C-alpha cells in the first residue's frame, strides 16, 4: 500500500475532477488514473495546469473505495485506491466541464462551492 503515497512530496497537485493527489510529473507522464479517459492529461502540461491544483486541504487514504461510506460522501466511491484531497481550490475550465457532461460525467467541484 505504500505505493499509493506519492514519493516526491514536492510539486504535489490534486485533480480538480476526482481529487486524487499526485506530483506534477506523474500527472504529466501518466495522467490521472481516474479521469484520463475523459481528460487527456498525459504528455499535456497545459491540461495538467488546467485540471489540477497545487492548493488543496486535507488528504484521505482510500483503499477500498466501493466499500467506504466516506468515499461515497466525498464522491470518490467509484475511483481507484489512492490519496485524495478533501477540498481542492479551483475549477476546471467550462469547455472541459461541458465535455464531461456530454460523456455523462457529473462534475462535483472539489472547492466546496457545490455545498453552498
UniProtKB/TrEMBL annotation:
GO terms for molecular function: RNA polymerase II complex binding; translation elongation factor activity; zinc ion binding. Its main location: nucleus. One of its GO terms (cellular component) is DSIF complex. Keywords: Elongation factor, Nucleus, Protein biosynthesis, Transcription. It is found in: Nucleus. Residues 12-89 form the Spt4/RpoE2 zinc finger domain. GO terms for biological process: regulation of DNA-templated transcription; transcription elongation-coupled chromatin remodeling. InterPro entries: RPABC4/Spt4 (IPR029040), Spt4 (IPR009287), Spt4/RpoE2_Znf (IPR022800), Spt4_sf (IPR038510). Belongs to the SPT4 family. The SPT4-SPT5 complex mediates both activation and inhibition of transcription elongation, and plays a role in pre-mRNA processing. This complex seems to be important for the stability of the RNA polymerase II elongation machinery on the chromatin template but not for the inherent ability of this machinery to translocate down the gene. This is Transcription elongation factor SPT4. It comes from Coemansia biformis. The gene is SPT4.
